[in-house]
Amino acid sequence: MLKVMHVEAGENFYGGARQVAFLIDGLARRGVDNVVVCPRQSLTARRMAELPAKLHAITMAGDLDLPLIPRLRRLLRVEQPDLLHLHSRRGPEILGAIAGRLHGLPIVYSRRNDHRESPLVTRFKYRLYDRVVAISAAIGKVLEDSGVPPAKVRIVRSAFTPEPVTPLSRDALRAEFGLPADAFVIAIVAQLIRRKGHAVLLDAMPRLLAEIPTLQLLFFGKGSLHDELQARASSTALAGRVHLAGYREDLPKLLEGLDLLVHPAFAEGLGVSLLQASANGVAIVASDAGGIPEAVRDGVNGVLVPPHEVAPLADAIIALARDDTRRHALGAAGRRLIADEFSVDAMVDGNLAVYRELLGADR
């Protein structure tokens, strides 16, 4: 039986960690023995404990946590996996790879972001991996342009499947957050960090409020910009219209009550929150950046606008707020797109093909 150790350092079970969960569940159904390593006392550890995999929750303290190397080596000696799959940037991408190399294992690294690295970093870092799984074609192009050998890169797109939950009605969602019953509700679902573009949407709010008097904005997520965004949300101009809702484990049942998902990110590997919104029939306005156009097809399941630009973002939101028929059609097309092109089975089989390529098809 093939045995794979997965290392995921995310604490809050955001998009990348959800992909690991989808992958582990699918691999288990195909007869693969999985071991997952994640941060101690984290939401990710709690959710991974529900999967058909052996869990090791350990201390993970980021890129400078050098003791992570012996911690992982001890686990590798105990578990004796056939292959090590690294899923995170914070620590495991380098330190985990070193541990795997010292143990003599084949190593797969999932690349989930589209930022460009320096040639020096690229030359060192990508020698550590036998294969790099890019979750979008856009990331694959970044890797190629950065000098990563094409023979190492495989494109396996992220996937999504709706959770079996009973969604809140429109009225129930508004009651949940204390919003007026007639509110037009838009949301960003993303970490509260600079590159997700929350500030661009806040810059557009004065015009949006003038054109859409019932508008209410929800920010779902946690991150380093919380206090800065809260200060802007509390300003006189935006008071009572912008709400920082934090990280919500029950997000799957909340999405269908939204009128629109907005994702003004400057950089994005693909955007699991975009797949999640489409799977729940929510139309999207997003930036034409990174791998986003692979998840949001302009005029199909959403509208793409130039990143960083306030006016086009506002124009797109206003246009969809005024056109219920088009907005609902985009949402319905999103459900079809996820079912047709972003199935979990395709993602799992793609990763499994990479493993078999390294270890031999008989494994």
Automatic annotation (TrEMBL):
Which keywords appear in this protein's UniProt record, sorted alphabetically?
Transferase
Q: Which biological process, per GO, is one annotated for this protein?
A: carbohydrate derivative metabolic process
Q: Which InterPro entries match?
A: Glyco_trans_1 (IPR001296), Glyco_trans_4-like_N (IPR028098)
Keyword Hydrolase in the entry? The reply is no
| UniProt keyword annotation of Transferase present | yes
Show where the Glycosyltransferase subfamily 4-like N-terminal domain sits: 15-157
Q: Which GO terms describe its molecular function?
A: glycosyltransferase activity
Q: Where is the Glycosyl transferase family domain?
A: 170-336
Q: Name one Pfam family in it.
A: Glyco_transf_4
Q: Name the chain's protein.
A: Glycosyltransferase
Q: Which organism is it from?
A: Solimonas terrae
